[in-house]
Amino acid sequence: MYWHTFHTSNDASGALARAVAAEIAQRLETQPRVTVAMPGGRSPVAFFDALSREDIDWSRVTVTLVDERLVDESHEDSNAGLVRRHLLQNRAAAATFWPLVTDPARPEADIARLDKELPAIDLVVFGMGEDGHAGSLYPGAPELDEGLDLDNPHAGLVITPPSAPHQRLSLTLARLLTAEKLYLAIQGRAKAQILQASGWALTGRWPISYFVQQAKAPLEVFWAP
After folding, report:
1. What is the rounded distance in angstroms from the CA atom of residue 188 to the CA atom of residue 49?
2. Which residues form the Glucosamine/galactosamine-6-phosphate isomerase domain (predicted)?
3. Which residues contact 97 (CB under 8 A, 6 or more apart)?
4. Separation CA 33–CA 187 (nearest Å)
5. What are phi and psi of 167, to 5 degrees?
6. pTM for this one?
7. 163, 149 Cβ separation under 8 angstroms
8. Nearest residue to 41 (alpha-carbon basis) of 123, 97, 155, 125
9. Residue extents of the structural domains in the chain
10. Higher pLDDT, 151 or 165
């Protein structure tokens, strides 16, 4: 785990945008396309805005999500809507978007679509909550063990957060760890303490620990107090 510390969240967002853009550009030198799984929620807005202005060949980039709420894209809580408003603009308007949810009422159909059609993921950018959840892999969710099972053959699953609105469709840990590189964006001392503690105990109490204590994909942390 590589830890980058910044004075402000804007500094962290800008640095993360530059790092992700540089990694995309480097990969485009040796492969025809790059697929990046992006975070949801309100925290990534500044990162999205900064990344959208980076000068890379966005026409060869596919953007998908780490997780999505089971709501229509027009809903204010839709991660797809957030990505369309804040990332798929400026230079990044040329990117291809691959939504996780096409019909909130039929998530099982979207899971089947993920299993069959989701492109191989090169990079993952995600966030963490103060309860140690990563993406939508929430502690206490009845589906958590399935989501953390590295032998799970499915790319996604429905998650029922115990303390957050809306069911979610989340990529599984197994699918996320097929990426070549992971970027974690967090803010605040409480999250930093949880992340540090998660390096000592592999536990469903802190799902983030499953990302910290793995050796499949390098994890870079971008943190601001």
Report:
1. 21
2. 10-211
3. 62, 63, 64, 80, 83, 84, 88
4. 31
5. -65, 160
6. 0.97
7. no
8. 125
9. 2-224
10. 151
Phi, psi of 186 (to 5 degrees): -140, 160
**CB-side exposure of 3: number of CA atoms within 13 Å?**
11
Topology of domain 2-224 in CATH is Rossmann fold (3.40.50)
For the chain, give the mean pLDDT: 97
Q: Which residue type, as a one-letter code, is found at position 72?
A: D
Whole-angstrom distance, CA of residue 201 vs CA of residue 194: 11
Q: What is the 8-class DSSP label of residue 121? A: P
Residue with tokens 């892999």: 137
With beta carbons less than 8 A apart as the criterion, state whether 204 and 144 touch: yes
| Helix H or strand E segment including 112 | helix 107-117
Q: What's the average model confidence in pLDDT over 179-204?
A: 96
d(CA 117, CA 34): 15
Using alpha carbons, list the distances in angstroms from residue 172 to 119, 145, 149, 192, 206. Answer: 14, 10, 8, 24, 15
pLDDT category of residue 42 using cuts at 50, 70 and 90: confident
Residues 6+ apart with CB under 8 A from 152: 146, 172, 173, 174
Beta pairing, strands 156-159 & 168-171:
antiparallel
Q: Token match 């063990």: residue? A: 145
Instruction: Kindly report, residue by residue over 57-109, the tens digit of the pLDDT.
Output: 999 999 999 999 999 999 999 999 999 999 999 999 999 999 999 999 999 99
Q: Side chain identity at 213, as an amino acid letter? A: Q
Residue 221, phi then psi, degrees to nearest 5: -105, 130
